[in-house]
Write a structure and sequence with these properties.
Layout: H1 7-16, E1 22-24, E2 33-35, E3 38-39, E4 55-58, E5 62-66, H2 77-95, E6 103-109, E7 115-120, E8 125-130, H3 136-156, H4 165-176, H5 178-181, H6 187-191, H7 208-229, H8 231-238, H9 250-254, H10 258-269
Parallel strand pairs: 5-6, 6-8
Antiparallel strand pairs: 1-2, 3-7, 4-5, 7-8
The protein binds zinc ion.
Amino acid sequence: MRFPLSMRWLLAAIVLIVAAAVIIVSRAHQPRRLAPLVAEFSGGGATLALRRALLPAQTDMLRISVAPLALPASASLDAITAELSTALAYVSARTATTLSEPITITINTEANCTLHGVAYTQNREVQVFTCAAIPSDRVVAILAHELVHQLAHDYYGDAHLNSDPIVLEGWATWGAGHYWLSRHATFRDFLGGEAPLPLAANHLGRPVAEMNTLYYQWASFVEYLLVTYGREAFDRLYRSGNSTPGSADYQGVYGVDLATLEAAWQEWLR
Ligand SMILES: [Zn+2]
């Protein structure tokens, strides 16, 4: 699979396989679903695994279940539990948010070997779909992003379910920090001045590489807003959207519209 963008994007796609997140309008009886990336993976023949009983593990805040053949044989339950506990501590510290109650993490076997995740924050459950051919560190990277969605639910309350995807997904990606940054220190460094897509673009239905690009741009934009205007203003922005890209109250919170902020951010990137 070839990505038409720069090596940086290629690296990102290979190392992280990040999934773009989708907010699907919930049906009346279903919790809202916050889904990250759908990432293509072309590696070792996928095997359809029969779902047997999941292997469980538990910490104070995480209840972890791993389906048979979901992880490489070398990845023990103890090891993945420790990695996820570390990831939670990291994203919690980075975002200055904490879980209000324990959550469930379910690692499912994906027959097609496509790595993707989803957060059912009202149910306090995050899930990832993967297969034994995908290294466990990529699974943890996806889950780091999902954990930030749950932390956002606990911090912002139900308002986070209606957030502008730019800040909702930008925050989850920024919050995942080094799990998405590879060797780079910041998302600005990661972008290296490149921001080919408009911020208010819809992420749904895009090719994986473009979804990745958009998520990194959004994370960088969040980074810019935090550095420039601080956390308190960002928190007000986060609570102000209506689920469509660009819907947050940029004018009300920052005194300038999104187009002006976007131009300033692009200048900051260079
Ligand atoms: Zn997401």
